[in-house]
């Protein structure tokens, strides 16, 4: 994937991260999705005093993509607040897979800018997919 596009997504994820509502964990996460249509959508984690209602940054970004009318992910970047890659939680892996192919790239970026690329197929092998609903 083109480095300029990745950098654009990284900047978008960092910007979204600044809006994180995470007073309970103090863990600010940002995410940016590039859709197949070439649009960029971003999101941050949104926590709640009722802890289980908190939403991950990836879910916010994917919700923005769907709200914007797009249904396919070309790439996604997840920005961590420290120098460890923030891998998506199990639920978010499933949410990404809903709109992605096995080879869709997922880039984790750290606070200092280190990029860790993987695919959603690596993060979530044997994903449950809509094809399973057909039979
Ligand atoms: N979080 C994300 O937003 N994305 C991830 O990939 C992992 C965790 C959020 C959820 C919660 O608001 C905080 O980080 C601590 O778990």
TrEMBL record:
GO terms for molecular function: cytidine deaminase activity; identical protein binding; zinc ion binding. Gene3D superfamilies: Cytidine Deaminase, domain 2. The keyword Transmembrane does not apply. Substrate binds at residues 45-51. One of its GO terms (cellular component) is cytosol. CDD domains: cytidine_deaminase. Residues 4-131 form the CMP/dCMP-type deaminase domain. Its EC number is 3.5.4.5. It is an enzyme of class 3 (hydrolase). The active site is at residue 58. Its cofactor is Zn(2+). Zn(2+) binds at residues 56, 89, 92. One of its GO terms (biological process) is pyrimidine-containing compound metabolic process. InterPro entries: APOBEC/CMP_deaminase_Zn-bd (IPR016192), CMP_dCMP_dom (IPR002125), Cyt/Deoxycyt_deaminase (IPR050202), Cyt_deam_tetra (IPR006262), Cytidine_deaminase-like (IPR016193). The keyword Zinc applies. PROSITE patterns: CYT_DCMP_DEAMINASES_1, CYT_DCMP_DEAMINASES_2. It catalyses: 2'-deoxycytidine + H2O + H(+) = 2'-deoxyuridine + NH4(+); cytidine + H2O + H(+) = uridine + NH4(+). Pfam families: dCMP_cyt_deam_1. It comes from the Bacteria. Keywords: Hydrolase, Metal-binding, Zinc. Belongs to the cytidine and deoxycytidylate deaminase family. This enzyme scavenges exogenous and endogenous cytidine and 2'-deoxycytidine for UMP synthesis. This is Cytidine deaminase. It comes from Salinimonas iocasae. The gene is cdd.
């Amino acid at each position: 994937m083109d480095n300029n596009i990745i950098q654009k997504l990284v900047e978008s994820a960092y910007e979204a991260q600044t809006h994180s509502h995470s007073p309970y964990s103090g863990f600010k996460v940002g995410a940016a999705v590039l859709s197949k249509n070439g649009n960029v959508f971003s999101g941050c984690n949104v926590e709640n005093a009722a802890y289980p209602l908190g939403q991950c940054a990836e879910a916010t970004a994917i919700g923005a993509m769907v709200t914007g009318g797009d249904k396919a992910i070309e790439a996604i970047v997840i920005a961590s607040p420290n120098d460890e890659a923030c891998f998506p939680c199990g639920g978010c892996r499933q949410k990404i897979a809903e709109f992605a192919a096995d080879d869709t790239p997922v880039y984790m970026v750290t606070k200092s800018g280190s990029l860790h690329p993987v695919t959603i197929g690596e993060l979530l092998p044997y994903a449950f997919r809509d094809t399973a609903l057909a039979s």
